[in-house]
Batch of 2 targets.
Target 1
Amino acid sequence: MLPLNAEHQGQGKELVFLHGWGLNSAVWKDLAKSLSHDYRITLTDLPGFGVNNRYCPRHYDLDTITEMVAGVLPQRAVVVGWSLGGLVAQKLAIEYSAKIDRLICVNSTPKFMAEPDWPGIKPEVLDAFASQLHSDIGATVNRFLAIQAMGSSRAKADILALRSLLDKRPPPVAEALSGGLKILQQADIRSQLKAIRCPTLRIYGKKDSLVPVAVMDEVERLQPHSVSMLFPAASHAPFISHASEFEQALRSYLAG
């Protein structure tokens, strides 16, 4: 298995950033530039996305892409994962605990699909994305960007920002998009959260329609030693809509 490409900048404590479905590591560009004055930043595109779109495994599942991302992890890293990237980050903390110093999950959850007793994305929404993906990849990704910004007071600006950042890297391959969606549909690591030993910060947006704020209490029950932080006016991408507040929250947590 060929190693993924990764970009490094800055010096200091190791910070690794993982992006969400349909996007790439450019979403962290501004935050990484600012933090690189005090930290060593690693940005990597998930398998099949961005500059790693040539590295798409035949079996695109959570275990496989986690193993691939683990190959670019520095020692004693703080891993920051957003959305699907947060699912990978949690799996890294479970399977590669010796490498992980802290875990920061941004608008993520151990199980994305809703069940009667678990808040999440309605199955029919993910099914519709999977169905549309076969006929129009571009429209599907654009629709997903719109849902990510839904509820934000600056939704239009957020969508434009995400769209612009998406275009800064090569496009994802269809197999990675469909495989990533299947992970969002099927992955359930709730029973494994007790294996996470490192300090964990979980950041949520109150207006998030993909990771409902109601899941916060459920996750705290499963991982009682984690710390939860809520951005009251944010949707699914607080590091875009509330960039300065998000950076300050990260810095405060890392300094503690």
Target 2
Amino acid sequence: MTAGLPAGPGTAARPPLTRRVGGAAAGALAALGLLTALPLPRPAHRAPSAATLAGFAGAGLVLGGTLVGLEAALAPVLPAGPRSAVLLAALALLSGGIHLDGLADSADGLLGGRTPEERLAIMRDSRVGGFGVAAVVAVVLCEYAALSALGGPRLQGLVVAVTASRVATALALGISTPARADGLGHAYAVPHRGAGAAVAVAVAAAAGWWLLGARGLATVGAALLVAPAVAWLARRRVGGMTGDGFGAVAELGLAVALLCLCARR
């Protein structure tokens, strides 16, 4: 038995299991505070810790489970189409609309302007332009159509898709560089963020496999590909990621995940 013995030379003592579990729960709670409009504690100075990034998977599972409960309540009275509209509206409300806003601002900025400075100025503008409107309409229509078409694995698919989309945001935080020194992208550049994102990815992959097998794992993988794609485009257009870019990753990741789930095998 080694319990209670001091750590050997050069060996770091591991925290007790209860502390590790408590840290994971605190990370998920902090992630929910960042990803939703719920009145929950947010990380100090706006910068999430590595534990918070790891908690993005737990936050996604909670959001997905909430939608499953709403789906179960609505199924006896509404057909799939109207239920899908209500579920997407509920997810937007729970998220405070921040991801849709980020998608609109990112589309306006990354697809417009002539210089990186102009594009960043467009993204800071509170007004929504043509690219932003088109992006939101197109992505929400894809989400609605795909969710409406989901058959048997609808409940499991909700959990997998929402979790994968939020973990894609954690991955983007883990691999990207900030576009400016005074924005959310810079505030979120925390130490060990890659490790936190890796934990979130592992949890999402495990959930996808457990709920839907290989199809769930492939869905998570497809949604996660959105993160490097958006990070690459942002780096080319404005020099790095902004807070709006992370919102865009969440919405695009959700659309990709739902489209994968309803695709013909």
